[in-house]
Specification:
single chain; about 375 residues; alpha/beta; Quinone Oxidoreductase, Chain A, domain 1; Rossmann fold; 2 domains; 7-stranded mixed sheet; 6-stranded parallel sheet; about 25% strand; globular; disordered N terminus; disordered C terminus
């Protein structure tokens, strides 16, 4: 028997997604009509309502990120929504469940399909925007501080980019652990936010003299733990400020911004890369560690255990993500411009047409985040 011919998608079987077909500036990002997705065996389909925007996606758009599939692909690493279809053999999940999903790509869309083991439940009481702001940033901060640095209540902890998505998560976590938290950020406004989230000391690195200001602020005591996501002079100053047995965990490199046709930018990127010599570490008894959430994703069982521990901790301590900016999916280019401007705080979230602002997640117990609905003035 001959196989039936494949029919072209009909209009009512389409959804919108942001497909990265070429590298470039924010203007290359635009939602387009794409065929609806169908879950396979062991998979679920999620009607995406909110999408978390990450700096890694800015680098992916520019062609500067290694952990990406071959173009063209739908950009985006994390989303929140409701399951609307189950594949064969799925257990423990039901249509209508509010879930988070983390993938290498596919999140900048109105639908996403994922294996059931890659789907997790958010902490109770989060708005859908907070759900989208939680996964990548909080897991990165938790793994860096708890799994890598082995955080202890007696530790003196510095958080760089302390007003960003990872930074605000880390400040709240370290403070809840009982640590003394030193927040580092580029403006006084960002430092005010970090202080409101539990930082005890704040130091600005957006102007000359940062290393001296940090040293003077610390006095004779060094840092036990640093969560570093900036690179360049910020990394160098933090490494120099480590106490004996101090450990610095690199979980990002925001100063990476070279341009393919600009050799000077290559040199600047190379010069600003976090690095320290083994000799320097053994003479001071310090350590350099690094983590990347994406490369851990293949170990689903390990990540599930870490996730459950983290959710229990943030629930017990009533920690919530900082949603700084909410924009519609149509404004995805503006979201990337905002992130690159370094003017954003907290998490930038995209909202799809599936999101009904008057409908809260099924288990919500709190009012939705009061984040602005678009870029603040």
């Amino acid at each position: 028997m001959n196989s039936p011919a494949t029919s072209p998608p009909v209009p009512d079987m389409m959804m919108r997604a942001v497909v990265l077909s070429r590298h470039g500036g924010p203007g290359v990002l635009k939602p387009t009509e794409q065929p609806e997705l169908e879950p396979g065996a062991g998979e679920v389909r999620i009607a995406v309502e909110s999408i978390g925007v990450n700096y890694a996606e800015v680098l992916s758009r520019k062609g500067l990120y290694g952990w990406t599939p071959t173009r063209p692909y739908v950009l985006g690493m994390e989303a929140a929504g409701r399951i609307d279809q189950l594949g064969a053999g799925v257990s423990g999940l039901a249509v209508g469940d509010v879930v988070l999903v983390g993938r290498q790509n596919g999140a900048y869309a109105e639908q996403i399909v994922a294996p059931m083991e890659r789907v997790v439940r958010p902490p109770p009481g989060y708005s859908m925007e907070e759900c989208a702001a939680f996964g990548v940033n909080f897991a990165t901060a938790w793994i860096a501080l708890v799994q890598m640095a082995r955080l202890r209540p007696s530790d003196r902890v510095a958080i760089t980019a302390a007003a960003g998505g990872v930074g605000t998560a880390a400040v709240q976590m370290a403070s809840a652990f009982g640590c003394e938290v030193i927040a580092l950020a580029s403006t006084s406004k960002k430092l005010e936010l970090a202080r409101s989230k539990g930082a005890h000391i704040v130091v600005e690195y957006g102007s000359p003299g940062f290393a001296e200001r940090l040293r003077d602020t610390l006095g004779g005591d060094g840092l036990d733990v640093v969560l570093e996501t900036v690179g360049g002079d910020v990394f160098t100053a933090c490494d120099a400020a480590l106490a004996p047995f101090g450990r610095i965990v690199v979980a990002g490199y925001a100063s990476l911004d070279y341009r393919l046709w600009n050799p000077i930018s290559w040199w600047r990127a190379w010069r600003g890369a976090p690095r320290v010599s083994l000799e320097s570490m053994y003479k001071r008894s310090t350590g350099l560690l690094s983590t990347h959430l994406g490369y851990l994703s293949s170990d689903a069982a390990r990540l599930r255990g870490i996730w459950d521990e983290m959710v229990a901790f943030v629930t017990e301590h009533r920690i919530r993500p900082v949603v700084g900016h909410v924009l519609p999916l149509d404004d995805v280019a503006e979201a990337h411009r905002l992130m690159e401007s370094r003017e954003s705080v907290g998490k930038i979230v995209l909202r799809t047409a599936n999101r009904d602002p008057d409908r809260s997640p099924r288990d919500a117990r709190h009012a939705p985040s009061d984040a602005p609905r678009s870029r603040p003035a």
